[in-house]
Amino acid sequence: MYNGEPFLIDHGRYVGKLKRFAKEKCHMATSIVSNGSLISEKWFKIYSKYLDIFAIACDSLDDECNRQAG
């Protein structure tokens, strides 16, 4: 899952439930790409077992570059 921050909707519960369904019912490999700013430790404890890949995107460590990129 990529292209937009998946944790914006319902504090990540929706995407967590979606990943759990994909893993348990469909036996799919699952992944998330996030900027990491909205992930809670509680979410990770509940849903990380349903992820095969969890990636943190970092466009730049320069705040001005990130501001210009939007």
TrEMBL record:
GO terms for molecular function: 4 iron, 4 sulfur cluster binding. The keyword Repeat does not apply. Keywords: 4Fe-4S, Iron, Iron-sulfur, Metal-binding. SUPFAM superfamilies: Radical SAM enzymes (SSF102114). Its cofactor is [4Fe-4S] cluster. It comes from Rotaria sordida. This is Uncharacterized protein. Transmembrane segments: none annotated.
